[in-house]
Amino acid sequence: MGAERVCRTPVPRRRPPSREGTTAISTDPSAAGSGTSDPAPAEALLTPSVPDASHPQRRSRSLRSRPRILGDFAIAVVGYLLYAEARSLHGESLHAADATRAATHGHAVYGLEQRLHVDWEHAVQALFLGHPTTLRLIGGFYGSAHFLVTFGVLMWLLLRRPQAYRYWRSVLAVATFLALVVFVLYPVMPPRLLPPGPGHTVDTMEVYGGLWSYNHGVLEHITDPFAAMPSLHLAWATWCAAAVWYALPARSWLVRVLVIGYPVAVYTVVIITGTHFMVDGLAGVVTLLLGVALVSLWYRRRSRAETPVALPVTGDDSRQQSTSLP
Fold it and tell me: CB of 242 within 8 A of CB of 312?
């Protein structure tokens, strides 16, 4: 009878290891010295190893993985305040000294283009000056796409590609900040505002019309007229193309063509409207590349700092609780 009683005594079963090769470790102090662990429920043994979203640690990781919209909004507000401050430094009332300095820099940029043989502003604009309807459409594209397309890509990344959103949002913020620094240190008058002579082109939005003119109304007081170098239009347009290119699947070649064509169209439009020099556009692309390099470097260093050190667990060592490295 005693033997039967021993045989019928339930033997604690050890929980099988999960698919990741790890075993459940009991942290109950009362079970530390008993040498046995409580039997796991049957449904727990039959359930696959699936991350539990209700776990506090996993929940905190999930919250950290979500983009912080309020923080991004605060960054956008600070960026606008910096832009407004940059404008007030050298363009709020179009002071003669500010205009003279910006015009000097504008002629210097045009002189650089002449030495590089890329002074194509007059030739490109001359192809469209005889077509007022086309110029009005171009003016509308210039005044709307710069903000609408950039905002649309940003929201698309946020809603459909949240992990990519973090990286490209940071690139956009850094590139814009670098451009603001140049606006303050090296104000450049665009070709449309240069006095008649070398480098001057027609202000098509003022002469032929568009959605608005930068020389009248509210825009005259909230925009920086001497922010030609680098072209923020080209920096943002190239950012849109790069972000969509890397976030979309490679099977859609039609979308790829449209993505590449957008910054090319923006480059052409800013030359036709007289708002930028050729070199300004190249500088805008370089500014974006600098933003990509800085953000990538920061992400690389962050990933190295957060990479966990995995200790091999085999045999009887699987029962021991892991400890962190010093």
Answer: no
Residues 6+ apart with CB under 8 A from 244: 153, 156, 255, 259
- For residue 2, give Cα distances in angstroms to 7, 11, 12, 91: 9, 16, 20, 100
Q: pLDDT tens for residues 46-55?
A: 333 333 434 4
Q: In whole angstroms, how far apart are CA 82 and each of 58, 179, 292?
A: 38, 11, 21
Whole-prediction pTM: 0.69
CA angle 163, 164, 170 (to 5 degrees): 105
The pLDDT tens digits of the residues spanning 236-248 come to 999 999 999 988 8
Nearest to 182, CA basis, from 90, 73, 264 = 90
269-287: pLDDT as tens digits = 999 999 999 999 999 999 9
Distance from C-alpha of 241 to C-alpha of 246, rounded to nearest angstrom = 9
Distance between CA 200 and CA 198 in Å, rounded? Answer: 6
Q: Which residues pair with 188 in a beta bridge?
A: 227
Return mean pLDDT, the chain. 75
Of 48-52, 122-126, 262-266, 274-278, the one with minimum mean pLDDT is 48-52
Q: What is the mean pLDDT of residues 165-190?
A: 92
Whether 228 contacts 280, CB under 8 Å: yes
Residues 6+ apart with CB under 8 A from 45: 15, 16
Q: Which of 220, 273, 283 is nearest to 91 (CA)?
A: 220
Question: Which positions ≥6 away from 324 have C-beta within 8 Å?
Answer: none
Distance CA 237, CA 276 (A): 14
Between 79 and 189, residue with greater pLDDT: 189
For the chain, the farthest-separated pair of C-alpha atoms sits apart, in whole angstroms, at 115
> Taking a C-beta distance cutoff of 8 angstroms, is the pair 270, 204 a contact?
no
3-state secondary structure of 188: strand
